[in-house]
Structure to design on (191 residues):
């Protein structure tokens, strides 16, 4: 499998990731997603048998029906999950989109939209290879408008890295150096 991350503006990710999945599927690329959710989110709820089983100490609870299944796995100590361990649990596909895992070493694009209130990560993170933005950015990285889904998908396919090597999946330093050498505002398309 190969993987590529998408971080940044939540509103932008919520819109872009499903569009990318549809685009990859239309191209015949098998795709899965791995989404980081807030620590306060619990996919189970009090009053359900599966919740009671977890509270009683079950390390994992699998829930399943004729359409889907999910595994709820408890950590003995709160810790940031290891991305390669999570990826290894997925059924093999061509591509995994990793959404919201800022600290993963996999290559990623960052969504930077007008009016967002958080500081962008791309100046300090060499694994960020491109931006999806609706503002003019002097980043020295390829920039795509939020509606350039086909171009973003092509960029992801060209830059996704193999999973499960046990080492950092990607060192963007060489890429970032060549992108900066090309000068600021290196754009792969308009907004």
């Amino acid at each position: 499998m190969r993987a590529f991350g998408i971080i940044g503006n939540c509103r932008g990710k919520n819109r872009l990731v499903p569009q990318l999945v549809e685009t990859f599927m239309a191209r015949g690329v098998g795709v899965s997603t791995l989404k980081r959710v807030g620590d306060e989110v619990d996919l189970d709820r009090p009053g359900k048998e599966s919740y009671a089983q977890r509270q009683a100490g079950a390390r994992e609870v699998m829930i399943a029906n004729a359409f889907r299944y999910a595994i709820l796995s408890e950590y003995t100590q709160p810790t940031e999950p290891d991305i390669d361990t999570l990826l290894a649990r997925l059924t093999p596909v061509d591509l995994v989109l990793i959404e919201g895992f800022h600290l993963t070493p996999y290559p990623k694009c960052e969504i930077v939209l007008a009016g967002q209130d958080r500081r962008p990560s791309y100046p300090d993170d060499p694994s960020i290879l491109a931006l999806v933005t609706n503002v003019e950015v002097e980043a020295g990285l390829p920039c795509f408008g939020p509606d350039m889904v086909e171009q973003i998908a092509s960029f992801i396919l060209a830059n996704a890295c193999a999973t499960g090597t046990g080492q950092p999946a990607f060192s963007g330093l060489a890429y970032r150096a060549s992108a900066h050498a090309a000068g600021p505002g290196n754009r792969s398309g308009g907004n």
